[in-house]
Design brief:
This protein has 628 residues and is of the alpha/beta class. It has helices spanning 4-21, 29-56, 63-92, 99-119, 137-159, 166-188, 195-211, 226-238, 260-276, 296-310, 339-351, 365-386, 428-434, 437-455, 471-474, 479-490, 507-523, 539-544, 554-562, 564-579, 592-601, 617-627; strands at 123-126, 132-135, 244-252, 280-285, 288-293, 322-329, 361-362, 390-399, 404-415, 421-422, 464-468, 497-501, 526-532, 549-552, 583-586, 605-606. It folds into three domains: 4-214, Rhodopsin 7-helix transmembrane proteins (Rhopdopsin 7-helix transmembrane proteins), CATH 1.20.1070; 217-363, Reverse transcriptase/Diguanylate cyclase domain (Alpha-Beta Plaits, 2-Layer Sandwich); 390-411 and 458-627, EAL domain (TIM Barrel).
């Protein structure tokens, strides 16, 4: 009797069982199916061993009894393939409404395979060399049924390949391959029963890749990790099950420095307290935990306990306080997709003022709508970049001295599919936040260079085009190299470009900006300080930056005509800037009397609706040709 492979298979299964029992288990629906597969494969292996024993000692047993045992053994082969199909179907059709249909299909398949096998003939054949083998229609039926299941699994893997979990596809693919190899091997080597062992190998692969509890355990705390949270959330949405969630973040609030050992002790105390709450909790990052509840009432009870405990100090002598932030989702049905759950937590922590979070934040419809709007704008920008729907409009700038248009500002727009125009105020801040501004800015700069190269506006008196740089672009380390490359590609004289910058915040950012400015100025590009009069802009910044032009923001221009104090401030700033021999552009001029006042003050350039709104490049060319 050759039972070596069966013993190996049993060893694999019991090692898997030990690993499952020794770890905390995430409440996943797929785990039940996996355990069902484990039980069937175990039964198949045990029946393998018993069948081998019976066939070696058949003379001691009743033939009817032997036939029944062998048929039951054969039926487990079919059951294993049915469970394999069930494993695929639950992933392909996670909707709760189809759950009963899958369950009925499973019962029908098990019944058909079992009854069919039991009704078919099976008998033992003795060879001349003393070996015994089973023969009969039961074998043909069972292997045929299993083959049909394998084909169905392969078809579903193919049809649903785009929506199935890639790892699950990989595991099932290996499992099916093992079945086929075992079937061929068992045909060639009839002394060995290989199908159950092949199933055990498949169970091992599925366990290692999908069902190993260790994959979902945080190594530091022993809690469930972020990978577990993602999978559990996807299951909630697949089952159309609502949940209440609470994210807490904490940080140290120490007036004096502490040792690393003390920090570790405090983190450990907080982790132990979190565990003591006896609820489903996930460690999202070093100092972030997400709690999941079935109802809002349980969540609020837990939330109160957390808030009260974090009011108390931590540490060896309980004298170290922490700062707690918490974010509460009353019902996950407010969010469209499972990935949006973590997305809304990230959005809330990144966008909402922490000064307003002393009492925590309830993530309501307004917060969620804001996140979806931002995501929609992000997708809008990406699609516009992909489909070449980024356009540049040009607003002419009037020279007070020359009494004509001598320059213009390039302004980005998005052209929608229906021909409508999206203004930059609706998408620039999102592009900066999401990191798309680098690509967007490069596209705009290239379009300006192409415009200068093809339309040659300088032949109609336009000395240069002003191009805005966002703060993110200003501190992009490769900005100078990228822009110089574009200028060279279109053979544009760098003096035809003036880049508009705004004040940056940190010392490091300023150093990067100055480095970019130095390289570009050496090449011939000039700079203007944009939006003077807003934000942190001040005269000291003008002194520090090698700019040639200062642009008064339209709000400052408007304030000049409406606020007496602002008038004195602007007068003083203007005289100091002129004393530094820098040119001044006044934005936002909309009326004739405003233009006349700026002219009397000695402003060099006027920009605003009094002369023209930003227009497409063709209309701009018509405008400057007429103006000349």
């Amino acid at each position: 009797m050759n039972i070596e492979v069966q013993i190996c298979g049993l060893a694999i299964l019991f090692v898997i069982l030990y690993l499952i029992m020794s770890q905390r288990k995430l409440p996943l629906r797929s785990t039940k199916t996996f355990l069902g597969i484990w039980v069937i494969v175990l039964l198949s292996l045990l029946l393998d061993i018993y069948a081998l024993y019976l066939i070696e000692n058949i003379e001691h047993y009743n033939e009817v009894y032997v036939a029944k045992i062998f048929k039951l053994h054969m039926a487990t082969f079919a059951w294993t393939t049915i469970y394999g199909l069930l494993f695929v179907l639950k992933d392909a059709y996670p909707d709760k409404s189809i759950k009963n249909t899958i369950r009925v299909l499973f019962v029908v398949l098990v019944a058909v395979s079992t009854i069919g096998t039991m009704l078919c003939e099976l008998y033992v054949v003795r060879d001349g060399d003393g070996s015994n083998y089973t023969r009969g229609n039961a074998l043909i039926f069972t292997y045929g049924f299993a083959a049909v299941m394998v084909v169905f699994i392969a078809v579903f893997l193919r049809i649903k390949r785009k929506i199935l979990n890639p790892t699950k596809k990989y595991c099932i693919g290996i499992w099916v391959t093992m079945w086929v190899v075992a079937g061929v091997g068992q045909t060639l080597f009839q002394d060995y029963l290989l199908f159950s062992f092949a199933s055990a190998i498949g169970v091992m692969v599925i366990f290692m890749k999908l069902e190993n509890p260790d994959n979902y355990i945080d190594r530091v705390t022993g809690l469930f990790n972020s990978n577990a949270f993602g999978r559990y959330t996807r299951q909630l949405y697949a089952m159309h099950k609502n949940a209440t969630m609470l994210l807490i973040k904490y940080d140290f609030n120490f007036k004096e420095s502490i040792s690393y050992e003390t920090e570790v002790i405090i983190n450990k105390q907080i982790e132990e307290f979190v565990k003591s709450l006896n609820t489903l909790v996930f460690r999202e990052s070093e100092r972030e935990f997400i709690f999941v509840f079935d109802d809002e009432e349980s969540a609020k009870v837990c939330q109160d306990k957390l808030v009260e405990r974090f009011k108390q100090p931590w540490g060896e002598k309980h004298r170290r306080k922490t700062v707690l932030e918490w974010y509460f989702i009353p019902n996950t049905e407010l969010l469209s997709r499972p990935e949006d759950v973590l997305g809304i937590f990230q959005y809330a922590t990144q966008n909402l003022n922490s000064a307003d979070l002393a009492n925590g934040l309830i993530i309501d419809d307004e917060v969620i709508k804001s996140m979806y709007n931002e995501k929609a704008v992000e997708n809008q920008i990406i699609k516009a970049l992909e489909n070449d729907r980024i356009e540049v409009f040009y607003q002419p700038i009037f020279s007070v001295k020359d009494k004509r248009y001598t320059t213009a500002e390039a302004l980005v727009r998005i052209r929608e599919k229906d021909g409508s125009i999206v203004q930059p105020g609706k998408f620039i801040h999102v592009a900066e936040k999401k990191g798309i501004i680098i690509k967007l800015g490069e596209v705009v700069f290239e379009e300006v260079c192409r415009f200068i190269s093809e339309y040659k506006p300088y032949t109609y008196g336009i000395d240069y085009i002003e191009v805005n740089l966002s703060v993110v672009q200003c501190v992009y380390e490769h900005l100078a190299e990228d822009f110089i490359g574009i200028l060279d590609r279109y053979k544009v004289d760098p003096t035809r470009i003036v880049l508009e910058i705004t004040e940056t915040a940190s010392v490091r950012e300023k150093a990067i900006l100055l480095n970019n400015m130095e390289k570009l100025k050496e090449y011939g590009v000039r700079f203007a300080l944009d939006d003077f009069g807003t934000g942190q802009s001040n005269l000291n910044y003008i002194v520090d930056m090698p700019v040639d032009v200062v642009k008064f923001d339209n709000t400052m221009t408007k304030a000049y005509f409406e606020d007496g104090t602002a008038k004195y401030v602007m007068d003083a700033a203007m005289h100091m800037i002129q004393g530094m021999e820098l040119q001044i552009v006044s934005e936002g001029i909309e009326r004739k009397e405003q233009y006349q006042t700026m002219e009397e003050l000695g402003i060099d350039y006027i920009q605003g609706y009094y002369f023209s709104k930003p227009v497409e490049k063709e209309k701009f060319m018509e405008l400057i040709k007429h103006n000349k």
